[in-house]
Design goal:
single chain, mainly alpha
Amino acid sequence: LGVAPAAGQYSASSSGLLECAAQLLARATDAPARAVVRCLDVLLLLARHDPSVLRRAELELGFRFGGGAAAAPLSALVARLVVEIDDEGPMRQGQELLVILLDPSTMDEAERDAFLSAAYARGGCMALIFDDVIATPGGGGGGHTRTDAARIAVLLSLLAPAMCAHGFYGSRAGLEPSLWARVAELAASPSTEVRGAAVRFAREMLKSLPACANRVAGSPLLPNLVRHLAARISKRSSLMDSAALALLEDAVGSPALEPIR
């Protein structure tokens, strides 16, 4: 596939390669880890060469792979893998694949509208990621396992750049009050990895979608960060402290973020 692009496109769409990949991804949590890794290797090879091969396959097959209740868009199966699997290797592979598939700079206008509409619809890859961030247990006084923390960091790092680049779809999702209530909760997590991911998410969103400032103003995110920094005045500065300070400086210095001052 890597050395014969045209043949690779034909094989991907016509020989059942993607159907086989989808069937494996639909049961990824129970499948042999090596098989899942190799499946994602093949999909990444295709996506790096031409992500439209995979996006068009979804569009042309009515957004569904597999049969019965497990039938879903390929991108949604990858998102489901990321939110369910406990192995960080495939989780990171799935993250990379979704980043490529969700990049609007590699889509023409018709493909962008169709693919993003499906991605944000119920059961689509962005909707699954969004819902999992909202629903993941822990935060505040609760804890996260190491895998939970890694997953939350992966999901937030997927959400922010995607929503910032997806125009109307991303803006609408970014203004959901439940999202910002959850980000504020995650910013108070006992896990440094989760706290840092939440702060980086907030900063990226506010820079690209300043309309989110109204939602941040209605959440405890910034008060939580101020309390965090106040509690660490006499301690050595961390990357989390630097990220929190940068976010607060953005809030003070940007006229577009006036609602959260």
